[in-house]
Each structure stands twice: as structure tokens, then as C-alpha cells.
């Protein structure tokens, strides 16, 4: 039916009553709802704050510093490198922003919603600290500019030197400026945007005056005063090619403000600080009218505009000013301007604006961190907002931290730290975009297409390289801090509903490797057990789950469960809602297992389904493990284990402990009837054998207590292997496929770190009249040696047991040729007693499991024989192996 012919359908598709749900950074989430806090346009919300942050103090007070020390060529190289780095990051920002709705928090929001809470929280906090330090840098630069003119040791005439100087006074002046920024930010983003626009006009007017002055002012001598007793002249030459030639090469010397020797790295750190404002617009994402559109457009416009201005300033400065002027007077723009006070106005305005931008941007990042509750009670007050939506408590937090930064006292002292922290954040944004691109998720389809994984990877590499070039110690320290924060958040934070890019990447890679895992290339040398454990009730089967987890040896381990029912009689599939409970159970038991559930009319059919369809490609179960069919009533494991009896605050994925316990039924009491008939249980075993699956039947594993067995006070324990088919003692072979299979499983168990203290024992049943038992023992020793299995061989005389095996069906029939002797209960009881008589503390016994009889009427008798054979043996695994699993060749 066409939507054009149905107005009602059109209304229903786009009605606010039925919005689409896609989540953050995903698809659009329905009709737009106007937010009163989102009032800023692209120009006022992104272009203006980004340009002012990128100019800041650097454009007026550090152009001479950069060109004077680095020369025009290296200055141009620094400029290009800096802008290539930030442009690569801007491309990543644009891609992420145009892929979905952006909320408050800017770069933190992008990183956390892409890389998850651990990366987002750690890098978000570091980006917050970078903005805090940047605010301090801008304020210190403003104070330096003020004292350079009005300070007692300033360069202006004595009449203007009215402000006392010193460390304490610098801190005091910085605190006053910071208080002014605080007052503006406490009012809110709208008043900040208006103030920023006025400053934007002033700064651009000053830049126009500077460019005009380069052309209009003729050559002159410029006095430079270091102090009252040290004054000298240098030259502003106007446009001269000789001046440009002299300024081309680098000539690093000591910075007169810190007396430190400058290098390429230190100069680049100071200059790069003027480019680090690219996130100023992103930080205001919560106040932007259309953040997904405004951030890319506004940021690119600001980057292009500031690059042109910086390039022209570098070029004109190199053409017109002697190097001495550049290196000895960082505020030389005022000395060569048509109206010197105008430059001061620009310096003060730009620095004040950049300070406010960093302060308000940092507060928004902190508010977003607090809302996500990644750092607990420490940041909880930062969630508080005013009626207009202004996070005033976060502003106060940030103001207090900037006060601490002002103790540094000198601009160049902390510029390197700021730069390293910004580079970490930029690299994280590039990493987020790279992860999204590599994951190839269908919902990652940004409207901005001018990026690729190459630009993301290059951005990461360049950021990391520049971090270590600028400050190796600072870069190392920042990475250590990031890892520490990542670990803290991983341990503390609850699971988020933001989506994990790691899951998308893992899926992408696993799919590739599964396609490469070709079952036709399997070889016995690399065989490993891949277990499907059928679990009826984890309250009684938890110990068996943990045991099979030990037994899998890096192979596939799947917990299978069959729900009885017909889908035709149900409104929806009940299985899907149960997966979370089973996955939470896997987390609680701390096992590496998958979960596969099915709905079937019977347990047998459900098990057949799971044996056929569980797994993928070359990772499919080759061994079925079942709990034994008996009347044993185990304890309720949920009541014994502290993980199930003690509530935890951090309940993952919406399944708390009471819900988990309520989902699984209580353990059946003694005398309660089984839902599964005995014949059907044996039929399941027979089905698995027919499907060429190895079978293990586990009995008494609720009694397995590893903590007691392997405690420091306990005596040594054993893992016993009985490789002979005890139900068919006339079988001559000790080394058939099944015997080797159960030997391999026992060996694998003792290879697990928690089982290495157990000793492996292999039992050889002999008759007193059999003279060939020594040869059999030697043959077994040779086999164990070839298989690299360390085990003790123990010969056990069992004449009294064999005598009970039954009488020949025909008189005179030789014993070894009898293939159909009756197995009596007395014989089975004698075998059971023989196994129990073996000394030592036995942890687990591995016994040979005969194939089920072909006659289905004998199924219940078969199960009775197994029950008598294993009665009271403790944890016992009956094993029937069909596949070769051992190899003696390299």
C-alpha cells in the first residue's frame, strides 16, 4: 500500500506517540523536541569560541617567540604539522558528530559513547584537566601581558608602572581575572556567547590594525628594556628581503621569561597550545541548537580562518622584524602598531575570552562525567544545575582547580603539560573514529565522508609522536594516568547501555577468523575438547559447570538447556528473555562459556537440536556432557556459594541477585519424580554416539570440593583412570580409541593450573594366572612416554571380580572368546568395591563408558548397570570416546 494514498499511515509513521528508538550516537530518535537550553547557532556557539580559543594569548604574545627562536622555515613547519594534526582530528570529529545526536560533554560524549565508559571516562577526565590547565595558561598569559606594561618592572615609561610584581602578586592578579571569568560562567552560556562575540569583534579589529601597521609603519628603532638598568634598541625594518633571509633559519636561545634553553619541542609546545582550541565548540554541544551540524561546520571554518591568520603573521613578522626584537620582546606588536594601546586591548580581550571558553567548556565536560556517575560521590554534586540548565556546581569545581594551576606562575612552565593532555584527547577521538570505521557496523554512516581509516590512524600516530617529542616524561605520565583511570572505572563503573565498540570489533574479527577456521584442515595434533554441557538446573549443577570449564583446555564450552514447550501454543518465544539470566550465571560462576537455549517438545529433541546447530564453522561441540541419571539429591549451590548468597551493588545488565535466584527453580526434594524418563536419557546418549559425538556422564560432582582437596593442609590427591571397559572385562584391548580418549581428558585436567597438584594414576586389571600382564604394563609405559603423559601405573588383581562375570552361554566356550556373557549385579558390585578399595584421596575417577545397547528395551537395564558400577564412588566421569585425540608424532 502506498503511503501517499494514506494520510493516516503517514501520521502513524511520524507521530510523536511512536518515536523511533536508536540511542545516542545512533539513528535519529524520532521527531525533534525543542530544548530551551539549546539556543546557540553555529557561528555563536562554535565559530566564535573556537577562533578565540585558538588565538588566545599566542596570536599576540607568542608569534615573535616562535619565529624568533625557530626561524620562519621551522615556524612554518610547526604550523603545518600542528594544523595537520588538528585537521586529522577535526575530520574524525566531523565523522562522529554527523553519525547521530550529540548531547552535552563534547569530546567526552563522543569518546564514551563510542569506546565505552572506561576509555570515555579516563580520557574525558584528562581532557577536562587539559581544559583546566589551558584556562590557567590563558590567565597567566594575560597577567604576563598586563605586568609587561603596567608592572613595576615593566617596559613602559615609569608613569605606567603602577602594579607591584612578584610571584604572590602574579597569583593574586590571576585570581582576580579568574573570578571575573567565574562570574560570567555562573550566569550561563547565553551571556558567555554574547560576551564572546563582542570580544571576537575586538580581536579581529586588532588583527586588522596589526596587518595595516606592517605596511603603514616605516622602519624604526624599537627600544627593549629588560629592567631599569638594561635597555637596548633593535629594529623594525619594514618589508625587506634581507630581513626575511636572516629570519629563515632557526636560532634557539634562552627564553627571557623562564631562562630555559629553547628547543624545537619546547617552542612547538607553546605554539601548538594556540591550536588546541578546536574542541571549544564541541564542549558547548549541550547548548547548540543543532550540534551534529554546527560542530563540523563551525570547527572547519575556525581552523581554516586561524591557519590563514597565523600564516600571514609568521610571514609578515619574518619580513619586517629583526630576530633580536622577536626574541627579546614578545609583545612587539604594540611597539610597531599605529596605535599601541589597541594591541593591549586585543591581548587582554583574547586571553579573557579563551579563559572563559576553557572554564565553561571544562565545566560542561565535568557535568557530563558526573551525570554518567563514573567517579561516584566525588563528582556527584557536579550534577546539580540551575533552573536554566547551567551546571553551576561544575563551574565552581573547575574554578577551584584552575586556582591550583595558577600556582605554577609561568606560562611556558605548564604549556607542555596542557599540550600533552590535549594530544591524548585528540588521539582518543581519532581512535574512536577508527574503531567505528574498522567495526563496519551498518549504523555507522556519517553524512561527513571526507575521512577514512587512514586519516584516523595517521592522526593517532602523529598525536602520539608529538606527545613524546614535546615531553617524554609528560607523555609517559599521561598514559600511566589514563591506564590507572581506565582500571579504576572498569572495576567501579556499572555496565552501560551506550553500546561497546569492542563488541563490534570483536564480532568483525571473529567472523573473519571463523571463515578461516576450516574443518577440513583439522588434525589430531591440535585437537581439543569442545564441550556441550546440558544443564537442567544450575542450582545443583554449578560444580559440574566449573569442572567442565577446567576440562575444556581452551576449547569451546557451551551451556545447553532445553525448555519444554511448543512455540505454536505461545504468543512469543520465551527463550529470548532467559538468556540474560544464564549469561549472568556464567558471570557469577566465572567460567568461560557460551549459552545456548532451545524450546522443544522433549529434552531428547532439544538436545538433538543443540548438538546439530550449536557453534559455528569449525567451532562446534565434539563432546556431550550430561549429569548422571540417579536419585541423588544435591545441596542447593546458590545457598552455599557467597557469590550467590551475598548481594552486590553492581548488578550487570539489569539482572540482580534476587532475580537470578528466582529465575532458577529450587532443587527437587528426595522422592520427587523426574521429568525425564530413564529410557529417554539413554536415548540421548545413543543419539549423541550416532551423531559421532563423544559422551561424558558425570556423577556426584556436587560433592567435588576443590578448596578442601588442594588446601595446604590436605594430603596429596589423585585422578584415577580405569581404561578397561569394566562391563566387558573380556575385551582384550587397553588402548582402543575410547581408552585413549578418557586418558587424554584426565591428562588435560591435570594440566590445568588448579589441578596440577593432583597425581594421575592409571589402573591395569590383571589376573593372577595371566603371565602377560608385565608385557601389558611395559606397553602402557611406552605408550605414556610417547604421549608425554606423566602417570603412575598400578596393577590390580581382580580374579575374584572376574569370577562373578557370569557363566558361558555354551559349555566349554573359552573365556576370552565370550562376547555375550551376562553382566550380573554381583559382578558390578564387586567392580565398584574394587574401585573404592584403591587407596588415597581420589578427586575424580575416569571410567570407560560402554556404548548403549542397540535394543531400546535394554536401555533401563543399561542405566541400572552404570548406577551400580559408580555407586558411592564420589565425583566420577564415565567417558565414551569416538574420535582419535592423541598423536605421537611431531
Automatic annotation (TrEMBL):
Question: Which residue windows are coiled coil?
Answer: none
Q: Where is the signal peptide?
A: none
Q: Name one GO cellular component term.
A: plasma membrane
Kindly list the biological process annotations in GO that this record carries. Answer: cell volume homeostasis; chloride ion homeostasis; potassium ion homeostasis
Name where it's found. Answer: Cell membrane; Lysosome membrane
Membrane topology designation: Multi-pass membrane protein
Entries under InterPro entries matching the protein: AA-permease/SLC12A_dom, SLC12_C, SLC12A_fam
Q: Is the keyword Cell membrane in the record?
A: yes
Q: Which residues cross the membrane?
A: 43-65, 77-102, 123-147, 167-189, 196-217, 261-280, 300-319, 339-362, 391-408, 414-438, 450-470
UniProt domain Amino acid permease/ SLC12A: residue ranges: 45-532
Q: Which is an annotated GO molecular function term of this record?
A: potassium:chloride symporter activity
> For the SLC12A transporter C-terminal domain, which residue ranges apply?
543-629
Q: What is its main location?
A: membrane
Key words of the record: Cell membrane, Glycoprotein, Lysosome, Membrane, Transmembrane, Transmembrane helix, Transport
Family of the protein in this entry: Belongs to the SLC12A transporter family.
The protein here is known as Solute carrier family 12 member 9
Amino acid at each position: 500500500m502506498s503511503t501517499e494514498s494514506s494520510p493516516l499511515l503517514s501520521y502513524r509513521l511520524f507521530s510523536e506517540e511512536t518515536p523511533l528508538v536508536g540511542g545516542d550516537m545512533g539513528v535519529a530518535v524520532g521527531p525533534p523536541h525543542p530544548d530551551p537550553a539549546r539556543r546557540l547557532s553555529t557561528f555563536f556557539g562554535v565559530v566564535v569560541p573556537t577562533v578565540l580559543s585558538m588565538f588566545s594569548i599566542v596570536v599576540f604574545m607568542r608569534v615573535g617567540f616562535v619565529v624568533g627562536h625557530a626561524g620562519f622555515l621551522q615556524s612554518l613547519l610547526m604550523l603545518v604539522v600542528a594544523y595537520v594534526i588538528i585537521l586529522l582530528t577535526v575530520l574524525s570529529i566531523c565523522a562522529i558528530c554527523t553519525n547521530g545526536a550529540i548531547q552535552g560533554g563534547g569530546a567526552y560524549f563522543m569518546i564514551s559513547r563510542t569506546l565505552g565508559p572506561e576509555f570515555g571516562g579516563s580520557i574525558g577526565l584528562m581532557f577536562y584537566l587539559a581544559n583546566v590547565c589551558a584556562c590557567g595558561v590563558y590567565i597567566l598569559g594575560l597577567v604576563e601581558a598586563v605586568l609587561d606594561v603596567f608592572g613595576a618592572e615593566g617596559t613602559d615609561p615609569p608613569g605606567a608602572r603602577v602594579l607591584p610584581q612578584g610571584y604572590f602578586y602574579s597569583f593574586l592578579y590571576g585570581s582576580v581575572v579568574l573570578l571575573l571569568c567565574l562570574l560570567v560562567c555562573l550566569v550561563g552560556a547565553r551571556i558567555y556567547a554574547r560576551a564572546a562575540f563582542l570580544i571576537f569583534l575586538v580581536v579581529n579589529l586588532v588583527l586588522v590594525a596589526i596587518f595595516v601597521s606592517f605596511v603603514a609603519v616605516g622602519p624604526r628603532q624599537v627600544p627593549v628594556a629588560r629592567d631599569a638598568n638594561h635597555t637596548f634598541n633593535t629594529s623594525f625594518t619594514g618589508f625587506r628581503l634581507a630581513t626575511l633571509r636572516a629570519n629563515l633559519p632557526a636560532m634557539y636561545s634562552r627564553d627571557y621569561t623562564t631562562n630555559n634553553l629553547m628547543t624545537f619541542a619546547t617552542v612547538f609546545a607553546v605554539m601548538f597550545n594556540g591550536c588546541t582550541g578546536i574542541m571549544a565548540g564541541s564542549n558547548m554541544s549541550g547548548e547548540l541548537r543543532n550540534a551534529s551540524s554546527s560542530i563540523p561546520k563551525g570547527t572547519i571554518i575556525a581552523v581554516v580562518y586561524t591557519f590563514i591568520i597565523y600564516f600571514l603573521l609568521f610571514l609578515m613578522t619574518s619580513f619586517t622584524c629583526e630576530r633580536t626584537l622577536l626574541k627579546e620582546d614578545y609583545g612587539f606588536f604594540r611597539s610597531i602598531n599605529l596605535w599601541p594601546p589597541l594591541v593591549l586591548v586585543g591581548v587582554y580581550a583574547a586571553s579573557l575570552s579563551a579563559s572563559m571558553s576553557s572554564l565553561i567548556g571544562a565545566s560542561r565536560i565535568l557535568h557530563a562525567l558526573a551525570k554518567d556517575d563514573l567517579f561516584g560521590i566525588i563528582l556527584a554534586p557536579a550534577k546539580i544545575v540551575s533552573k536554566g540548565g547551567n551546571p553551576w556546581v561544575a563551574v565552581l569545581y573547575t574554578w577551584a582547580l584552575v586556582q591550583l594551576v595558577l600556582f605554577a606562575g609561568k606560562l611556558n612552565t605548564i604549556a607542555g603539560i596542557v599540550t600533552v593532555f590535549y594530544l591524548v584527547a585528540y588521539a582518543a577521538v581519532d581512535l574512536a573514529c577508527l574503531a567505528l570505521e574498522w567495526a563496519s557496523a551498518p549504523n555507522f554512516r556519517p553524512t561527513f565522508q571526507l575521512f577514512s581509516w587512514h586519516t584516523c590512524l595517521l592522526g593517532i600516530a602523529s598525536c602520539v609522536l608529538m606527545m613524546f617529542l614535546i615531553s617524554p616524561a609528560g607523555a609517559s605520565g599521561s598514559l600511566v594516568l589514563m591506564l590507572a583511570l581506565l582500571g579504576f572505572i572498569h572495576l567501579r563503573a556499572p555496565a552501560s547501555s551506550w553500546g561497546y565498540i569492542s563488541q563490534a570489533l570483536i564480532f568483525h574479527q571473529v567472523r573473519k577468523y571463523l571463515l578461516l577456521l576450516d574443518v577440513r584442515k583439522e588434525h589430531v595434533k591440535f585437537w581439543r575438547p569442545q564441550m556441550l554441557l546440558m544443564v537442567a538446573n544450575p542450582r545443583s549443577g554449578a560444580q559440574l559447570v566449573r569442572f567442565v570449564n577446567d576440562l575444556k583446555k581452551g576449547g569451546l564450552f557451551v551451556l545447553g538447556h532445553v525448555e519444554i514447550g511448543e512455540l505454536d501454543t505461545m504468543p512469543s518465544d520465551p527463550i529470548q528473555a532467559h538468556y540474560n539470566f544464564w549469561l549472568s550465571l556464567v558471570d557469577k560462576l566465572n567460567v568461560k562459556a557460551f549459552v545456548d537455549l532451545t524450546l522443544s517438545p522433549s529434552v531428547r529433541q532439544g538436545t538433538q537440536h543443540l548438538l546439530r546447530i550449536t557453534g559455528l564453522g569449525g567451532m562446534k561441540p565434539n563432546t556431550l556432557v550430561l549429569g548422571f541419571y540417579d536419585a541423588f539429591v544435591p545441596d542447593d549451590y546458590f545457598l552455599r556459594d557467597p557469590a550467590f548468597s551475598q548481594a552486590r551493588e553492581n548488578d550487570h545488565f539489569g539482572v540482580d541477585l534476587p532475580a537470578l535466584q528466582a529465575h532458577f527453580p529450587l532443587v527437587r526434594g528426595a522422592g520427587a519424580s523426574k521429568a525425564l524418563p530413564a529410557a529417554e536419557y539413554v536415548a540421548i546418549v545413543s543419539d549423541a554416539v550416532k551423531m559421532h559425538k563423544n559422551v561424558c556422564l558425570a556423577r556426584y560432582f556436587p560433592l567435588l570440593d576443590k578448596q578442601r582437596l588442594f588446601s595446604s593442609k590436605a594430603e596429596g590427591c589423585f585422578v584415577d583412570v580405569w581404561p578397561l571397559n569394566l562391563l566387558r572385562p573380556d575385551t582384550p584391548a587397553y588402548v582402543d580409541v575410547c581408552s585413549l580418549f578418557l586418558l587424554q581428558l584426565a591428562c588435560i585436567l591435570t594440566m590445568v593450573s588448579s589441578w596440577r597438584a593432583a597425581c594421575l594414576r592409571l589402573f591395569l586389571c590383571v589376573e593372577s594366572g595371566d603371565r602377560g600382564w608385565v608385557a601389558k604394563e611395559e606397553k602402557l609405559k611406552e605408550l605414556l612416554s610417547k604421549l608425554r603423559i606423566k602417570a603412575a601405573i598400578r596393577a590390580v588383581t581382580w580374579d575374584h571380580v572376574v569370577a562373578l562375570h557370569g557363566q558361558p552361554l555354551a559349555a566349554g566356550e573359552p573365556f576370552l572368546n565370550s562376547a555375550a556373557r551376562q553382566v550380573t549385579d554381583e559382578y558390578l558390585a564387586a567392580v565398584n568395591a574394587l574401585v573404592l578399595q584403591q587407596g588415597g584421596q581420589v578427586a575424580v575417577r575416569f571410567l570407560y563408558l560402554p556404548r548403549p545397547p542397540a535394543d531400546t528395551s535394554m536401555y533401563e537395564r543399561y542405566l541400572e548397570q552404570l548406577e551400580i558400577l559408580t555407586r558411592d564412588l564420589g565425583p566420577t566421569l564415565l567417558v565414551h570416546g569416538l574420535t582419535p585425540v592423541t598423536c605421537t608424532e611431531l
